[in-house]
Amino acid sequence: MPFQEYHPLPFGITRIDTAMVHEELAACYLMEAGDECAIIETGTHNTVPIILALLEQKGIAPSAVKYVIPTHVHLDHAGGVGGLMQALPGATLLIHPRGARHMIDPSKLKAGATAVYGEAKFVEIYGDVIPVDEGRVRVMQDGDSVLLADRELRFYDTPGHARHHFCVYDPLSKGIFTGDTFGLSYPVLTTDKGPFILPTTTPVQFEPEALKTSIQRLLDLQPERIYLAHYDMVENPQPLGERLIPMVDDYVALAKQVAANNDPDDLQEALEVAMGEYLFGKAREHGVTLSEAELGKILGMDIRLNCQGLAFWLQHA
Ligand SMILES: [Zn+2]
């Protein structure tokens, strides 16, 4: 399907491309129910005008947005929260208990991303991160739910990718907004075997056992579809989850083996080589026929981040 900035999905949901780095890398979602709306995931601060333009296109008043719901506070999911909350006067921010303070005072998030990318690249990718007034923040505990008009949304604590991560179950569509817990699946890697899924182990809170437990917990809800931030709605997630869980073990085995055979100074580079071989091999098994160079363009950033997360985990586990 040709690229669409706004892509309508069933059950009153619209997928929005966040325009981060390149097309079809990161998505956020508009959910409509009765005369109320929610924004699930926000993209970056640069995504805010894209979301507001969709509301205008649909004739939705900014005051009709009741909730802004990032699954966790990594900036590709929550970087737009502050700017959105300014533009949406009736909205409450729903956030994981461990994420709330970073939304009220984003200085640590900003400093962390600036340290990784440098000031110029930070501004290019993320724009800015704006604080949210504490009075507009509501913490969602495991098992909590809210109503959007008469539509229930249920929140599940899902550590493993990050300790500040929840997933949002939507009983109406039997769908789950999985953030990064259920891994990544880029549409361009989908073959006749279905979507190509891989775990994401971004630093600094990767916890393999917790991640596997969280994925299984999502599968136990028997969802018929999941809404990935990276990227798109995917149907029939059961077999994907069954592929994803052993891949977490594969990552861990790969990381331990590379660490045992390499000098600590060479760890990151050696991990990236091994992770590249592993993921490209998996993609080939899955029937992906893109060239090495094209695969590198699509997975290169994730390979780097995954290895940074694994290296951090190895050093702190
Ligand atoms: Zn993340």
- Strand ordering within the main sheet: 1-2-3-4-5-6-7
Low-confidence stretches: none
CATH topology of the largest domain: Metallo-beta-lactamase, Chain A
Overall geometric form:
globular
Mean pLDDT: 97
Bound molecules: zinc ion
Number of strands: 13
Query: Helix content range of the residues, please?
Result: 25-40%
Structural class: alpha/beta
CATH architecture of the largest domain: 4-Layer Sandwich
Any idea how many domains?
A: 2
Distance from first to last alpha carbon:
43 Å
Please, what is the CATH homologous superfamily of the largest domain? Answer: Ribonuclease Z/Hydroxyacylglutathione hydrolase-like
Rg over C-alpha atoms, rounded to the nearest angstrom: 19 Å
Q: Can you give keywords for this protein?
A:
317 residues; alpha/beta; Metallo-beta-lactamase, Chain A; 2 domains; six-stranded mixed beta sheet; 10 helices; 20% strand; binds zinc ion
